[in-house]
Each structure stands twice: as structure tokens, then as C-alpha cells.
Amino acid sequence: MGFQRYIKYSFFVTACVISQVLSQNVPRLTVTPSGGFIQIVEGVHNGTYVGSLTATDPDDGESLRIEIDNTDASDSLVKLSPPDGNPATGVIVNITVHATLDRDYEPSQRPLYFKVTDKVGNVDQLRTSLLITDINDCKPEFKNQPYQLNVFENATKGTSLLRISVSDPDTGNGGVVNLRLEDPLHMGNPFSLNGVDLILTEALNYSINTFYQLEIHAMDNAPPYNNATPANLIVNIKDVQNTPPYFIYQPYIGSIPENTETGYHILTVHALDGDRGVPNSIEYFFVEGPEHNFTINSTSGTIYVSGLLDADDEDVQQNGGLFRLTVNASEIIPPDQINTGITWSTTSVSITVTDINDNRPVFTKPVYHASVAENSPTGIPLTMDNGELIEVFDIDQVPNNRFNLSINSDNHLSSAFDTIPAQFTTIYGRSTIILKVNNSEYLDYETRTNITIQLKATENATYESETKIIVSILDVNDNSPIFDEHQRTTFTVYENVDSGTFVGSMKATDMESDVVYSLDGDEDNVFSIDANTGNITVNGSLDRETRSSYTIFVIATDQPEDENQQRATRLKITINILDINDNAPEFTELPSRRDIPEDSQNGTELLTVRATDRDNGTNQEIVYSLTGNGNITGFSINPDSGSITISGSLIGMVGSRYLTVMAKDKGTPPLNSTANINLFVLDVNLHRPIFYKPSHRDYNLSADIIPTVEVIEEQSSGSNVYLLYANDSDSGQNGAILYSILPDNSDDWQKFRVDRLTGNLTNLGRLDREDKERYTIVLIAEDQGLPSLETSITLRIVLLDIDDNLPIFENENRGEPFHLSVFEESPDVEIGQIFLATDKDATPIVCYYIQGGEMVDHFNLNKTSGILSLIGSLDREIIAKVNLVIQASPDCSQNRPVTSSKQADFMTSYPPEYDPMNNTLLWVQIEVLDVNDHRPKFKQDELTAGFLYDVEFGTIVKELREEVTDADVGINAITYFRLLGITTKDMEVDTGTDKPLILDSNGTVKTNMLFSSDMTGAFVLDIQAYDIGNLTSDAKFEIYIISDIQRLKLVFLKTPDEVRAFKDDLIKELEKDLQFRIIVDKIATHQNTEGTPVITRSDMFIHARYLDTDKVVPAEELWRAFDFSSTVHVILDKFNVIETRPVAQQAEKNDSSEENLKKSLIIVTAGLALIAITLVLVLINLRSRYRRRLRAASTKTFGSARDTVPDLIPPGTNKYYASASNPVYMKELNIDLTEDSTSRNSIDDNEVGDKKAAESSEPEEQEIAITLFEENTYSFKDANRSSALDLVLQQYEESAKAKKDAASLNSISASDFSNIGDLEHSDI
């Protein structure tokens, strides 16, 4: 009953002691506890002590007898113990409980009656009450289940929807029930409970959830806080029209040609009601767009053409032939429907009207006039009269508006012109045509004054048009002046001549007028020409050195009357300028100063001077010489080349000197120029520098004697390493020394820098001994002489160590752990040595500590050796891998705290204490190796499966490997199976001595015989699973023989392996809801209707059994149970079930097309045969009935007022047929056919006369008529009459019997048999 809290309730009842005095001393009976009641707690065990009775008697205490008075069945509640105590002071008996007492469902206060009797019969009676106090031992109970209600989606928040009925028979707080609402399916919970009232707290939306399945939990308010069995609450959401319609299959785009007829169906828009409940119908209409061109069916949404469409219309062309319509889809609202939202929506429809070729190209005028000058060159456009343009257009659209132009070739003069655009060029739509000259030979005013051409625009053989163009040829001045044939074109003149000097003369003539001359191209305007004579003279200053030649044009122009037709001829002439010596030489290459070593040898070329002369010829030839104006000797110059060489010793001439050089031309008179050349005689550098620090005396590279400097590592950049010193015996710059480091193939020289002047050697960066201990560099001491001399020396720099490196783990992949392993359940063993760290310092110090990780208290790490040991043991099934973080440190005296983490703390693949970038840390992963310490375990102690009775021999029924787990891994987890025994259950058919099923060691259960359809029940297999260590687990396996008609197939949107993973959970939920025992027969890959496997789906075959009888539930019933349970729907959706159906139904659908065809042919053949038989029987029946009718019609009635039958129509005959022949006997009847007063039924037409029913002869006559009917060979029954006809006959017989006393049939009218006649005809 769980935890309990006892609550006491006191009910006080006064105990009445009834005494009957029989003698002087009556025994007395009292109860303990006193107070009128005995209080016990409900549910106490039998024999529990609750009180005691004490009896006293002054007369004789030993003979007292205490017993229960059965006045109110007290002995069924309590029991008395044997007497005890001192008779003198009182006899005592204990009262114990004799029944299980329940206060909740029985009275809480029960009367008890006791009595004491002495030996003489005196009696004392005692009445007390047994007060049963309550404990909280009852669970609350829900009433009026199930809870299911319907709510409209627009229900207002805060609305009370349902009142929950729940009770608890306990009292006090134990009877106070608290309710809460749970959402186990996580569908969202828009409800809450206010006490027992279900309140809507959030807005509902039918389109999101159509129902909610919740659980109501109830718990009382006292320990142990009993919980009721949860009650299911299903709230179905009803749709409210609050969502507008929406269009499908968008966008709506159509295209039709412009000649489409009215009424043509273009496209159909389709909208659906946005509400998912009972959708409304939709009405369509236009709200925007050219409605006069189109119409829409308001019901179907189909859009039709309703007017003329012209793609060439200007407004249509501006829109590209596109018509935009806006269609409104409105819901048709029933009168009683609730609407809370917009009931319409719109969509855009685009209809493009395409062009067809229905127009030809057209010129704007039939005749055009143009003119052209006779001298117009090829390509010149013609001038149109009055500024008009030749235009042609086709109002169709692309590509139906393309055409080309051509000029009529019948006239050979038409080749004189061409068109722009060119002939036969494709033109689209509209173009302006320009005529141009194509052959100017035909444009001769003296030959013809005009040319007429035909211009044609051609689209195809059908569509073309022409226009005429008349071209007038205009006369022009077409003769230009001509220069004389022997006209001179080259002239000369000296520079510096006076203005007006004659240069030459030009001569030209013109056949039509005088000629005038002019110059063109004389940009400097240094020449002029006489306009009438053509004489050319100097008009400015001429300088040959500035310009030596002029090329200009002489223009001869005629003088026509019309200045617009003036013509000219140009002739190019050249005027060369002759030289005179008017320029002195000029030096071009003259150095400002030249330095000369004092030890220069004779013949050494010092330099070469260059001078130029702007004159030409001999006037520009130059001779070089040295004058005596210089302050130095010992030099000579080549007079032609200007090369100056040393011709004497310069020793002792150190310092500044200069030479004077002259350049003179060879003109008449000669001209010259002079220039000074500054010289500096240099001192010669004769000595090399010598190193003293480091000393060259301690240096012998070949003997590996190299000066060495020791420097402490890790000094900051720029620290002093060594101060160099070298000396040079030369003076001045030759003795000034600069220091440098010689680059070589190593990188050592890049680590240092030397001050060029002071020789201070410093480091350029951090020097780490652990990276490199020794550096060797070559130092250079170089003087500043010309040329400079240098000396080199090699210096070795050795770094001294300091403790500046932490020990590090040098594993390459820092993202992977260092692996160790240990067998589980192995206590206090050495696991192994961790990956050792390295310290780059000269004297490494490394100690190891556990920094953090999992289960750190289970490990011990030797800080000096790195050996990791286990404290206690590990269980692989609890943790398969343990991650530790180890830190290497140079401090061996640490006492640091260790952090412990769990796998859940890992934000990445490695422990949170581990940083891959910190190489003082090592991630160690200890794999716990498996030992065989777990037995195989069946998922369920009782397994079930089923197979079809018609399976083949050796068919696999079950793979038991799927039903067994083993916490071990590897070879220890391999499970083997053995069959311990096999029995049958509800099996009525003997299967023989052979085992019907066999079990392979790998867990495969297979059939070992053939089964038949009369075999029912199950085989019960006692199976055992064992592993390599012979650890075992047993289970029972019930295998049922079933047929396809008992199975249901579930199709999953999952693979078979995924379905097997959650199979047990699914079956458990289905069994809980359906209250059936469900057996999974098989799980396989799904096959479609063509038999092709669908690997993304799975089929589960199941059957069910009743819990009480263990009989098979028919598949159809199981299927209906699926459909009728909303909970099952939720379960199936949860497990991705997309289809359920009986297997037999599925099998029918999977019949081959060939079988269906055969069945169809058989059915058709049988149907035709049945129709043929029916027709034969109908014909036979007709013939028989016609004969019967004929007999009835010809039978005389007796005792009638007439001797003959009144006007009767023979049955089966046509009264309008002249011969009135009997269709059976083909004999003419001698009866009157003029009156149609009878029906077609011969029985109805038996006339018995107008006599009263009292006449005795009439019954006999009626008997004759009935006898004819009964003697008919073909009765209604035998003629396969319908049940309706039999019913009518029965009614008729009953009616006849009721009228038997009348003994007459006169009262029976023809209408009594009308039904029979109708049925006869309907049968025919």
C-alpha cells in the first residue's frame, strides 16, 4: 500500500451496561479501554490485540464464563482469548481481531456484545462499539469514463468544457483528490484543469490538430499519495469556417492564337476551401482585367474566349500580347454555417495572345521622288523630294512581321542604286528605306536625266507590295584644273636668305575657267605663292638646323559661276633648305670630375669627350686637342675620337687637377669650343684590416681552431653578444673599417646583427638552446679604400642553458588518446606506462600527475616512472572506456586537486580537462577488456511467433538471435542455442514421432515437416541460450500454426532492422490498448504490387489471440479494432505505420493478371450460358401461360345470364390485329375484339356472371377454373417465379379462404390479380 499516514477519527458512543440481577451478587464485566468504544485501524491482521475484558464476582470468581454474545454477529469481528488473571481480583480475556476490516466499504462503527455468566446463571451483558479508523489505502477512481468530447476550434479561451467525476472513499485528506493533466504524446496541451473542470487555455486550430489525446491523473492528498489509473481524455476539434480558399496548380498561364474562336476553353483555375472539415463549394468570377474578352464558369473555374482577340492591336502590342485577369474564388456559405474569417481569395491569370501571319508589308506611298548629282560617288544617299521618307511596315508581330527588300531587276539601270537596309536583308516590323548610289557610271546627266526603279517588299509568295521611285539626275561642275605635265615639284633654297627670294613657279590650266593658286600645309608660313602667276617666294626666316625640308601642297582652283560647284586640284611639292657654316661645335659628354689612382699605368684610357656640330657636311666635322691651360701634364687626346689617355706617371700628383679640351670644325671659316675637365688623383689602398677581437692569432679554420663566445639563452632581442675590433694600417678612408656578417648557406648569420661602425654584435631574436645550441658566423672587417680590402674571421657562439622548458608529450595527433587496456574485474593491477614526456632542457626534470577525467579515484599514477595502476576493479558493462588527463610537470613537489568528470560532461570527444593545444597534457583512454561474466538473456521469458500451415519444409520460422542480448562483447557475446524439449498446445492432430520444428545452434528455428490446414494450436519449445563459457538462459517459445486469413499486415516507412528495434515497444502499446495478445509472425522488406522490393519500407505480419481463450482473433476483427481506436491511430503514426490490411485481402489483390483474365472469361461464359438457359425457360413458360390463358378464355361458365362469355380479348393477342389469331395455335377466334375491358391475365378475366354468392352452382364453376390453374404443368414455383410473385399468390389464397362462406368469386375483381400481371410482364 506504499507509504501511509494514519488519520484518527473519533466517534464516541456511550457503552450501555445492561445488568440483570438474578441473585444478590451478579458478576460484573468491564472492558479496556474504557470510554464506550474500542478503536482499531482498518486493514489490521487477524489476531491483532485491540482490548481486554475483565469479569469480577464477589461470590465466586473461578466459575465465571466470558463469551461473545452473538446478538449482532460479534463473533465474526473479534475473538476472545482463554481466561487469565486472578479469580479473586478479576478474570481477564483479550480481544483480538477475527476478520479483515475495511472502513471504506463497510460501516466504520460496529457494535460488539459480550456477556459473563456465573455458575448459578447470573449474567452481566456488556455492549461496546468497535470504531474502525481510516488509513489512506484507496486510490481515487474516475467515474463516467471514457472522457471524450467535441469542441469547435473557435471556442473561447476560458470556456469550461467538461467536469471530471472522481472519488476516493478515504476520509480526510486521503479522500481529497488533486487532478493534473498530462500530454504523453507531446501533441501540445491547450487545456488545463481548474479543480474538476476542464478549461480551454489556448486557441485551437483545426488545421494544426484535429484531436488531442491527453491523460488525467488523480492523486489523493495524504501519504502515501495514491494515484488513480490515468483516465484517457480525447478532445476532437471540430472545424469552423475561418480559413479562406486557396488556389492549387498555380501559376495560371495560358497562351492562345489571335484567331481563336469564341467559346474556346483556355484554362481552368481550381481553388479549395482552406478549412479541412467539411469544405464549402467555390464560386469563381473576375474582379479585374479585360473581362469583355474572356468569361469564366462560376462553378468549374474554366476560362473561355468571349470576344475578338487581335494581337496586332496597338494596346495589345504594348502589353506584349499579355492579358492579366484577377479571379476571385469565394466560398458558397450555407445559411446555417458559422464563419469567422475571410471567405474569398484571389489569384492572377496570365493569358498571352500570340500573333498569326495575317498582314502583308505595306509602303506608305505608291510613288516616291528623289534626286542625285551626276558626280555622286558610290555609297552616297539619294535626296528625297520635300524631305519625305520611304517607309514600309508590317503590323504583325515577330516573327510574322519579317520581310525583305529588292529592286526590280528587269531594268538594267536598277543596278545604279542599292538600299539601306541592303536588299534581301530580313526586316522586322517597320523600317525607313534609304536609297544610295551603287554604280555611279549610270549617273551621267549628259546621257540621261532620270531613272525609274521598282522597290518591292516581299514576305512570302502571298504577301508582297511594290512602290515606284523616280530618281532625277542633276548636272554639276565635273572638270577640275590640271597641272602641266612637266611641272617641277622639288625646289632648293639656302638658309638665312632674305624674305621675297624666289623659289620656283607653278602652272595649271582648266577647260572651263581661270585658275588661282594657293598653298596648303605651310604651317610655319615661311613661303608664299602668287595667286595669279603661281610664283613661290620666301616669306620668312629659314634655318636648316631647325628644319631642313618642307613638304607643302599647291592648290589650283577653278572659278565657276556657282561657287558651290567650285573644283580644285592639289599637287605636293618639296622645298629643301641648303646649309651654311653658322654653328660652332658643342660638347655633349663631359664629366664634372674624374678620379684617377695615383698608380695608373701609361696608356690607360681616362675618358672620351664628345662634341657635335649642328651644321652638315664638312661644316660638322670636328677635331679634338688639349690646350696648355691645364695644371697637369702626362695626358694625350686622340684628335678624331676624343679619347684621353695617360701618357706619363701621376705619382705625387694626388689632389685636384684639370685639363682644357678644344673641339674645332672644318668649315670656312672654322668655329671651335673649349671645356675644362676636373680630375682628382686618388691615394691607393695597399693594406688589409686585421682582427684583434676575436684575435686572428687564435684562428685557424683548417685546424678547426675557431674563437668561441658563450652566451646565456633566452636573452631579449638586441642584447650584446660580443664587441668586435679590427685595425687597418692605411690612412683616411683606406684605414676606416666597416663590420658586417657574411651570409652563407646556413641560417646562423640571420640570427645576429653587427653595428657597421662600432662592431657591436647583437642578437636579432630569441635564442633558444633547445632549438639550437651552437651558431657559427663569418665576420667581415672591410676598409673604405678604393678598391676596399677586407678580412674575414669565423666566430662560434655557444648558448648556455637555463631551465625554461616544460616537459611535453610529443604525440603527433593531439586529438586522439593514448591507449591502454585492462581486463574487467581485475583488482589492483598495473595497467601500463603512459606515453613519456620529454624536456628539452639540458637537465630534464619530469613528474606525472592525474589532472582529471573519469573515475580518477580508481587509479594511481607513479609520478616519476609514469606507471598507471588500478585501485580496485572495473566493470566493462558499466563503463567500457575510461578517459584520464595526465599532466607532465617539472615540479615534483606538487599537491594539486584532481577534478572528476563524467561522459555527460564531455562537450567534445575528449574530456573537459583536456586541451589539445596544451602539450603538457596527455589524454589517456583505458579500454576495459571484456571477460565472460554475463549470461545471454532473452528479452522476454515467453516468446511467440506464427507461421502459415502451407509453408515449405525447412522454412525459417524465427531467428532467436534477435530476441537475446548479452552484456558481454566480442566472442563472449556470441550466443548459441539448444532445444531442451517440445510440446503441443491445443493441438488436435498428431504430428508423429519426428520433431515438427528444429533449432539450429545459431538460433534459427525451421520447420521439419509439412503441415496441413486442419492443424491448429501451437508448439511450445523449451529453449536455452548459452555462450562460450556455457552461461545459460532459458525461455519458452510458443509457435502458432495460422493461415493468411488470420494475419494482418502493417507497412512501415522504416527498414526491417529499424522495425525490429522498436517491435517490442509497439506490440506492448497495441496490446495495452486492444486487450489482445499480439504475436509477430514475420518482419520482411516490403514488396509493391508488382513484387518489387522497396528497401525503404517494411512489412510486419501479425495475428492476435483473445486473452481469455487464447483463440485466434479473425484478421477482419483485428483490423476493425485498429480502425475504431483513436489511440491505435496515434500509436501507428508514432511508429511510422502507413498502411494496415488483412493479408488475405492483400493476397487477392496480388493475383496475377492471367488468373484474373481466366476468371473473367469463366464468369462471362457462365453468364452467357445462364442467359441462354433463362431465355429458353422464359419462352417455354410464355408458351405454357398463353395456352393456359387461352383455355381460361374459352371456358364457359354455367348458370350465367348469358350463354356465352362476354367480350374477351384472348391473352397474348392484339385486338387491333385484323385476323385476331391465336399466337399459339394460329387459329382464328370467333369473339368480339371491339371492347378492351379485360386485363391480359386469363385468370383475372374468368367471368362467373352477375349471380349472387348465394347460388349453389357458382362454387362448382369456380372450382373448374381453379382446376385449370392447378393442372397447369408449369407452376409459378416451377417456372422460377420470383419471391414477390409467390407472396401475391399466397395473399390471393388467403383471401379466397376468407371468402369461402360466400362460395362465389363474383366479388373478386380483376384488380386482385393486377400485381400478378405486372410481375409477369416485368419478368418477361
UniProtKB/TrEMBL annotation:
<keyword id="KW-1133">Transmembrane helix</keyword>
<feature type="domain" description="Cadherin">
    <location>
        <begin position="703"/>
        <end position="809"/>
    </location>
</feature>
<feature type="domain" description="Cadherin">
    <location>
        <begin position="814"/>
        <end position="938"/>
    </location>
</feature>
<feature type="domain" description="Cadherin">
    <location>
        <begin position="248"/>
        <end position="363"/>
    </location>
</feature>
<feature type="region of interest" description="Disordered">
    <location>
        <begin position="1236"/>
        <end position="1261"/>
    </location>
</feature>
<dbReference type="GO" id="GO:0007156">
    <property type="term" value="P:homophilic cell adhesion via plasma membrane adhesion molecules"/>
</dbReference>
<keyword id="KW-0677">Repeat</keyword>
<keyword id="KW-0325">Glycoprotein</keyword>
<feature type="domain" description="Cadherin">
    <location>
        <begin position="143"/>
        <end position="247"/>
    </location>
</feature>
<dbReference type="GO" id="GO:0008013">
    <property type="term" value="F:beta-catenin binding"/>
</dbReference>
<keyword id="KW-0472">Membrane</keyword>
<dbReference type="Pfam" id="PF00028">
    <property type="entry name" value="Cadherin"/>
</dbReference>
<feature type="transmembrane region" description="Helical">
    <location>
        <begin position="1161"/>
        <end position="1182"/>
    </location>
</feature>
<keyword id="KW-0732">Signal</keyword>
<keyword id="KW-0130">Cell adhesion</keyword>
<dbReference type="InterPro" id="IPR020894">
    <property type="entry name" value="Cadherin_CS"/>
</dbReference>
<dbReference type="GO" id="GO:0045296">
    <property type="term" value="F:cadherin binding"/>
</dbReference>
<protein>
    <recommendedName>
        <fullName>Cadherin domain-containing protein</fullName>
    </recommendedName>
</protein>
<dbReference type="GO" id="GO:0009653">
    <property type="term" value="P:anatomical structure morphogenesis"/>
</dbReference>
<dbReference type="InterPro" id="IPR015919">
    <property type="entry name" value="Cadherin-like_sf"/>
</dbReference>
<keyword id="KW-0812">Transmembrane</keyword>
<dbReference type="GO" id="GO:0005509">
    <property type="term" value="F:calcium ion binding"/>
</dbReference>
<dbReference type="GO" id="GO:0016342">
    <property type="term" value="C:catenin complex"/>
</dbReference>
<dbReference type="InterPro" id="IPR002126">
    <property type="entry name" value="Cadherin-like_dom"/>
</dbReference>
<feature type="domain" description="Cadherin">
    <location>
        <begin position="364"/>
        <end position="483"/>
    </location>
</feature>
<feature type="domain" description="Cadherin">
    <location>
        <begin position="485"/>
        <end position="587"/>
    </location>
</feature>
<dbReference type="InterPro" id="IPR039808">
    <property type="entry name" value="Cadherin"/>
</dbReference>
<dbReference type="GO" id="GO:0016477">
    <property type="term" value="P:cell migration"/>
</dbReference>
<keyword id="KW-0106">Calcium</keyword>
<feature type="domain" description="Cadherin">
    <location>
        <begin position="32"/>
        <end position="142"/>
    </location>
</feature>
<feature type="domain" description="Cadherin">
    <location>
        <begin position="588"/>
        <end position="691"/>
    </location>
</feature>
